[in-house]
């Protein structure tokens, strides 16, 4: 459906009962008893809670086996084991990044996610094949979902000759963000790795999103080198550090010094809130003014059997990992998959405000905290001002 839409009888997070008027793809008005104009379609909310469309801040759509037969995982314990196993499997199985990314992106959309940042493997074995598949998905879903595509060197940047040139091509051919991976522990030379990464990003005027799994002091040194380059190259607000496990291991004084620099340089953090490794301290980050948001990482792939396209579930995992129990604390967990994620990824025109893009989710919950804890079915999903799903199933456009 297209045109104007009036959503009646819904509740905002503060409990206020309102109607929401949508003109084209934008929220035109929010308030009680809005007048229905001729030619406007009406959607009765029946007292549902209305939330902004969810944001997936870090996933790997190109890797997923969503909807495929079960993959028997027998990979070794090291990061390099997982990288090499996945590269072999994808090369020999004929895994189709285009078809699989489309299947998972639609699953995200049907339960309320309207914006996704996805990392896509670029390496000297596959070249840009995976990227081309995800770019096709981005084009197919244009108008109902925003996909930010990160060109990601999963096998490292310096270890495999030709990777830098492939990343250069990936950005020229449509990738939105430049990825990077563990400059010290994978590439073995954090200075050269970061210099190459920032040079490519600067040449294309693209932001950076780096996977930083490096622990403790090693991770802290890499992070400090990265922040030096952000400052020197005036790239404030253009860099995300994903995972940042080191921030969960450092002494408080060293940690807080890095948080101060992160906030000053507007470098955001991404966490998947994993249960088994250190994580950046959520409340300390927020108190320091650092944007921290959440994502799934891989979903049902050669790395992990876990994951789900339901971002309320991810918000629940954030709440569990950080021991968030009060209602206001669970609202913070929801912010990691909504407002904070939109800020961290640079998604514009986001939120439940007049003038924002009309990406909305209606569900039966009393409060935001209730929605995170119970994860009720999505009665209706609206993206770009159009109803795109009901009760978890897509609606024909």
UniProtKB/TrEMBL annotation:
Family annotation (CDD domains): Bact_CD
Alphabetized UniProt keyword annotations: Hydrolase
Annotated Amidohydrolase domain residues: 47-389
Entry-linked Pfam families: Amidohydro_3
Enzyme Commission (EC) number: 3.5.4.42
Superkingdom of origin organism: Bacteria
Molecular function per GO: hydrolase activity, acting on carbon-nitrogen (but not peptide) bonds, in cyclic amidines; N-isopropylammelide isopropylaminohydrolase activity
Name of the molecule in the record: N-isopropylammelide isopropyl amidohydrolase
Biological source species: Paraburkholderia saeva
């Amino acid at each position: 459906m297209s045109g104007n839409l009036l959503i009646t009888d819904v509740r905002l997070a503060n409990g206020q009962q309102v109607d929401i008027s949508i003109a084209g793809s934008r929220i035109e008005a929010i308030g009680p008893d809005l007048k229905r104009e001729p030619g406007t379609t009406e959607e009765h909310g029946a007292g549902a809670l209305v939330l902004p469309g969810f944001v997936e801040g870090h996933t790997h759509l190109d890797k997923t086996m969503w909807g495929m037969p079960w993959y028997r995982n027998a990979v070794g314990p090291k990061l390099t084991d997982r990288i090499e196993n996945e590269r072999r499997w994808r090369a020999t199985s004929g895994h189709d990044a285009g078809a699989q990314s489309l299947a998972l992106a639609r699953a995200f959309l049907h339960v309320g996610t309207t914006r996704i940042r996805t990392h896509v493997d670029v390496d000297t074995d596959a070249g840009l094949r995976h990227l081309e598949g995800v770019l096709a998905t981005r084009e197919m879903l244009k108008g109902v979902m925003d996909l930010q595509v990160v060109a990601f060197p999963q096998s490292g940047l310096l270890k495999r000759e030709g990777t830098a040139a492939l990343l250069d091509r990936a950005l020229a051919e449509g990738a939105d963000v430049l990825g990077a991976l563990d400059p010290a522990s994978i590439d073995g030379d954090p200075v050269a790795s970061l210099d190459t990464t920032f040079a490519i990003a600067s040449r294309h005027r693209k932001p950076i999103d780096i996977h930083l799994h490096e622990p403790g002091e090693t991770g802290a040194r890499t992070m400090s080198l990265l922040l030096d380059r952000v400052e020197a190259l005036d790239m404030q607000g253009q860099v995300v550090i994903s995972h940042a496990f080191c921030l969960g291991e450092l002494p408080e004084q060293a940690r807080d010094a890095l948080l101060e620099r992160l906030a000053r340089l507007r470098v955001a953090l991404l966490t998947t809130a994993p249960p088994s490794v250190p994580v950046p301290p959520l409340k300390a980050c927020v108190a320091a003014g650092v944007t921290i948001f959440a994502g799934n990482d891989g979903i049902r792939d050669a790395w992990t059997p876990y994951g789900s396209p339901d971002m309320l579930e991810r918000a629940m995992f954030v709440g569990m990992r950080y021991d968030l129990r009060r209602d206001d604390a669970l609202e913070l967990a929801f912010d990691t998959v909504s407002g904070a994620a939109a800020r961290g990824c640079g998604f514009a025109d986001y939120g439940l405000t007049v003038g924002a893009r009309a990406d909305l989710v209606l569900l039966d919950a009393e409060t935001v905290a209730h929605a995170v804890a119970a994860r009720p079915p999505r009665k209706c999903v609206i993206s770009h001002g159009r109803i795109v799903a009901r009760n978890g199933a897509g609606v024909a456009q």
